[in-house]
Design a protein that fits this description.
Blueprint: H1 19-69, E1 77-78, H2 80-86, E2 116-119, E3 133-136, E4 149-150
Antiparallel strand pairs: 1-2, 2-3, 3-4
Length: 155
């Protein structure tokens, strides 16, 4: 008598991942992201402040060039009129050719807001050196708050 033959099971190599393996990988990625993301967010704020300081320095250099061409005097006033004046070629009396603009483009901070200018500086914006006050209102876009970036203090 023949014994009943059992159908043979072939063992195929396993392909794919189990649910446990996929969940384990996702958990590991989640832990890594939780460690990295806060560091990146903090770095972005520092990068924005540094970029704004560079923009302020460029604007301040344009003001120094202006003063050099105008008997050491910075343009008095504040805001948009000064910026427009610095972006406009200036006709000089001793030359037929106009002087190129002191600013090629509008000075913006890292948050795409126009830098502020004031000369002579008010009591709030004074430094120990006689120079224009140039500042950014920072990410909150409100003047005279803790996140402002300026050229008269080390903030």
């Amino acid at each position: 008598m023949h014994a009943a033959r059992r159908p043979s099971r072939r063992r195929f190599p396993r392909s794919g991942f189990t649910l446990i393996e996929v969940l384990l990988v996702l958990a590991i990625l989640g832990v890594i992201a939780a460690m990295v993301v806060p560091n990146l967010l903090g770095r972005q704020e520092v990068a924005n402040q540094k970029a704004t300081r560079i923009s302020i320095a460029g604007f301040e250099n344009a003001m120094k060039l202006y003063a050099q061409d105008h008997d050491g005097l910075f343009p008095p006033g504040n805001g948009d009129t000064i910026i427009q004046m610095l972006m406009t070629p200036e006709q000089t009396s001793d030359s037929a050719k106009p002087r190129p603009p002191y600013l090629e483009k509008e000075p913006l901070d890292a948050w795409k807001q126009r830098l502020r200018y004031e000369y002579p500086p008010s009591v709030n914006h004074q430094s120990s050196i006689d120079k224009p006050a140039i500042w950014s209102a920072g990410p909150d876009r409100q003047d005279d708050t803790a996140d402002d970036v300026n050229n008269w203090s080390q903030n």
